[in-house]
């Protein structure tokens, strides 16, 4: 028996070594790509953020000077506030609408077609969507034409007075279909007998949502929240194309963190080329992402429900 045990252990060791070698063979290319395209640029951005640099001349060390300037920059503070509004307010509205639509579509006959229609904006380029959104709300656009037809002599100047509100609404519209698709996939895997049992016990729709749907799709909700957090801090094309012009950036009142970084480097009629200052802002944005994702993982941590 002892000889058999020794023989088995001696044969499994080469197999374990072979598996480890194969594992590293497949993992190493991914790690190299991760290091080249993420770790190295992140470290470089951190180093550049400590300097004043226009991309061509020699760097001038400033220490934390760029970060201190950010605290006094009203445009940066406004863009940070807009980013938080899109992250928190937009996220709340997107998830409420997504869950409501998921519950409505769950038992609907043509739910696959409806889901495809809702998901359609996600397969169209954000620039195209922003242009279409602009045609709808411009001074002589479809909405104002409808208002004039209804007897409104002076319809609102949507793109002038309500630009950030329209950006907010447009981003909610674009993203809702994506999260409906994800949440519906999570809801579809819940066995029917849970809802049948709730019906037999006289549970209301709110009770079914609270005690069945949300607990059994919590892992999907948590993952979706992380995706939204990371994505909302990197929104760029929609705001740039919808709020800007052919030769200039959108008004600074509607900037977010991504547009602020672009505006400090290549954006605008006269590019700033303030790469050190922009790098400091990108480091702050990265810290935002890390902190919010860590908080989300902490707040949404629950034991997985098996069913």
- Counting helices, strands and paired strands, the structural category is mainly alpha
**Helix-strand string:** HEEHHHHHHHHHHHHH
Tell me, what's the shape?
flat
Mean pLDDT across the residues is: 86
Q: What name goes with the CATH superfamily? A: MetI-like
**Approximately what portion of the residues adopt beta-strand conformation?**
under 5%
Across the major sheet, the strand order is 1-2
Give the N-to-C terminal Cα separation.
42 Å
Low-confidence stretches: 1-6
The count of domains is: 1
Computed Rg: 26 Å
**Can you summarize the main beta sheet?**
2 strands, antiparallel
Q: What is the number of beta strands? A: 2
Class in CATH?
A: Mainly Alpha
Q: What name does the CATH topology carry?
A: MetI-like fold
CATH architecture: Orthogonal Bundle
**Count of helical stretches:** 14
Binned, the helix content reads over 70%
Keywords:
mainly alpha; two-stranded antiparallel ribbon; 307 residues; 2 strands; 14 helices; 72% helix; disordered N terminus; MetI-like fold
Structure description:
The structure is a single chain. This protein is mostly helical and 307 residues long. It has a single domain (74-299), classed as MetI-like fold (Orthogonal Bundle), CATH 1.10.3720.10. Helices cover 72% and strands 1% of the residues. It has helices at residues 2-48, 65-72, 74-105, 111-119, 126-137, 142-149, 158-161, 163-188, 192-200, 205-216, 218-232, 237-243, 257-263, 275-299, and strands at residues 51-52, 60-61. Strands 1-2 form a two-stranded antiparallel ribbon. β1 and β2 (60-61) form a beta hairpin. The longest helix has 47 residues, at 2-48. Mean pLDDT is 86; it is low at 1-6.
